[in-house]
Amino acid sequence: MQTTTKTAKEIYYDVKNNPARKRFGFGNKAVLLNVDPQKAYTMVDEFATAYETDPKQLEYTNELAKKFRLLGWPVVWTHVAYMDNADDAGIWGTRTDTPDSLQNIKFNSRRSEFDDRLEIDYSRDAIYLKKMPSAFFETQLQSLLVWHQVDTVVITGGSTSGCIRATAVDSLSRGYRTIVPEECVADKHESYHFANLTDLSLKYADVLDVQEVMDWLTKQAK
Predict the structure, then answer these.
(1) Are residues 194 and 217 in contact, defined by beta-carbon separation less than 8 angstroms?
(2) Which long-range contacts link 139-143 to residues 24+ away (Cβ below 8 Å)?
(3) Bridge partner list, 129
């Protein structure tokens, strides 16, 4: 095992700035998959479980969604919420039991709501309730992607070390080119955030500047 005195952030930027870094690349058609941008995780002034990495994250997400809709490509939003007794949280809900715990994000609670800053088109965007880290696990997502014949999954949301990573691994495992716009994902601590961006970039996804993703979408519209 290699050892280092560098921080997770420094290691990430070493990987990012490596001119020999390999990519999976963009395919022919993509889905925008926005993972759990709900108040429990975005309202940093209200909930202890919330986090913010780039203050413009939700603004970028809205802009990506607009570009996807103009292309007629699918836009998906996921969120988590659980029953009052938390039976549907399974083993994931047994580690802690505090007001901030995952399984205490209840149906119809403020913590379960999407952030008010998001521009969700409820007439055409797909909204899935999930119970576990990956957006693919026991949701209708796979069927949607098959129907739309997409080959590329662009993932935003949080957390980088949790549901983003799990979703990216499942995306790659299903044969999709997987793209993570760096400014559009967030985590509670920069160490977790950058360590997982490094791992995603080296193994499971292309971690790109959001502007590169925007530019690719603009080209598809011409």
Answers:
(1) no
(2) 139/78, 141/33, 141/76, 142/174
(3) 79
Tell me how far apart the alpha carbons of residues 52 and 31 are, in angstroms, rounded to a whole number: 24
Please give the Cα distance from 57 to 62 (Å, whole number): 9
CB contact burial 42-55 (16+ within 10 A = b; e otherwise) = bbeeebebbbbbee
Enter the pTM of the model. 0.97
Please determine, for residue 162, whether its predicted confidence score (pLDDT) is greater than 90.
yes
Angle separating helix axes 8-16 and 190-199, nearest 10 degrees:
30
Asked if 172 contacts 205 with a C-beta cutoff of 8 angstroms, the reply is: yes
Average pLDDT over residues 201-218: 98
Tell me how far the alpha carbon of residue 149 is from its chain's centroid.
20
The whole-number average pLDDT for the span 103-107 is: 97
- Give me the residue label for tokens 């395919």: 27
In the chain, domain spans: 26-194+206-220
Contacts of 15 (CB under 8 A, 6+ apart): 21, 198, 201, 202
CA dist 194 and 77 (Å) reads 24
Residue length of the chain: 222
Q: Which residues are catalytic?
A: 163
* Amino acid at the residue 86: A
What are the φ/ψ torsions at residue 148 (nearest 5 degrees)? -85, -5
* Residue 51, C-beta contacts closer than 8 angstroms, at least 6 positions apart: 41, 44, 158, 159, 186, 187, 188
CATH of domain 26-194+206-220: 3.40.50.850
